[in-house]
């Protein structure tokens, strides 16, 4: 499984755009990149998933460069409720091997 | 959340006792997973099951046992052999692995917080 590296923590003020970058140098051809969000004492929640270029949904955008060795989760105009831990995972679409959760990035949004 | 229920939300156990955590899903997912999370840490995989009557050990299976007799249920037993069982336990499920075009997105339950007294 491709290992991921992301910052341990980040701080941001309300209303700012937050970009969290994840490094996955050993990503395989069949691997997708998935981001989850976790609030304290809750299960992680799927945010966004992509393979290459850019993916956008109502919550976030995911930017993946051509070499796919990194990806950036972009949260537009964060609010206090976006304070959470964000996990970057890499795995193939077959699902035969469970995804591996690292320690994630703890985002703190400040008023 | 999203069709996965875990019970109870809080559980207290005396040292030396076995305890079983419940996980049920109505998403018709084939695969189910159990994770453990300690304070400030990420999720660690305990066991997973990709089909009924079959399951595999994850990274930290020692002291735990599971069964998968029904597609919708994947109970986890924390045995007395688990030396440090106090943690937050999360159950997840995903669609059938190996199907073309199906991405391995996991859906999580609300978790059970186990405290050993």
Describe the 3D structure.
The complex is a heterodimer of chains A (about 110) and B (about 120). Chain A is an all-beta fold and about 110 residues long. Helix content of chain A is about 0%, strand content about 50%. Chain A has strands at about 10-15, 20-25, 30-40, 45-50, 55, 60-65, 70-75, 85-90, 105-110. A 5-stranded mixed beta sheet of chain A has the order 1-9-8-3-4, with no helix packed on it. A 4-stranded antiparallel beta sheet of chain A has the order 2-7-6-5, with no helix packed on it. The mean pLDDT of chain A is about 90. In chain B, the strands form 2 sheets. In chain B, strands 2, 4, 5, 6, 9, 10 and 11 form a 7-stranded mixed beta sheet that branches. In chain B, strands 1-3-8-7 form a 4-stranded antiparallel beta sheet, with no helix packed on it. By secondary structure, chain B is mainly β. The interface of A and B includes residues 41, 45, 94 and 98 of A.
Order of helical and strand elements of chain B? EEEEEEEEEEE
Mean pLDDT of chain A: 91
The stretches of 5 or more residues of chain A where confidence is low (pLDDT under 50) are none
Q: Which range best describes the helical content of chain B: under 10%, 10-25%, 25-40%, 40-55%, 55-70% or over 70%?
A: under 10%
Q: What profile does the largest beta sheet of chain B have? A: 7 strands, mixed
């Amino acid at each position: 499984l491709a290992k991921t590296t992301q910052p341990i923590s980040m701080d941001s003020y309300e209303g700012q755009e937050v970009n969290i970058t994840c490094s996955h140098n050993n990503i395989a051809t069949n691997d997708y990149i998935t981001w989850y969000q976790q609030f304290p004492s809750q299960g992680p929640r799927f945010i966004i998933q992509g393979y290459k270029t850019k993916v956008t949904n109502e919550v976030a955008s995911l930017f993946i460069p051509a070499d796919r060795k990194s990806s950036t989760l972009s949260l537009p105009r964060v609010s206090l409720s976006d304070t959470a831990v964000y996990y970057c995972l890499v795995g193939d679409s077959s699902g035969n091997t469970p995804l591996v959760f690292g320690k994630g990035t703890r985002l703190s949004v400040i008023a | 959340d999203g069709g996965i229920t875990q019970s109870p939300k809080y559980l207290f156990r005396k040292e030396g006792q076995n305890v079983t955590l419940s996980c049920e899903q109505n998403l018709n997912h084939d695969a189910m997973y159990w994770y453990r999370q300690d304070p400030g840490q990420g999720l660690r995989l305990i066991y997973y099951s990709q089909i009924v009557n079959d399951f595999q050990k994850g990274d930290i299976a020692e002291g735990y046992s599971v069964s998968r007799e029904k597609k919708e249920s994947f109970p986890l037993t924390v045995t007395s052999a688990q030396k440090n069982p106090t943690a937050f336990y999360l159950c997840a499920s995903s669609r059938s692995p190996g199907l073309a075009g199906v991405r391995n997105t996991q859906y999580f339950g609300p978790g059970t917080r186990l405290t050993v007294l």
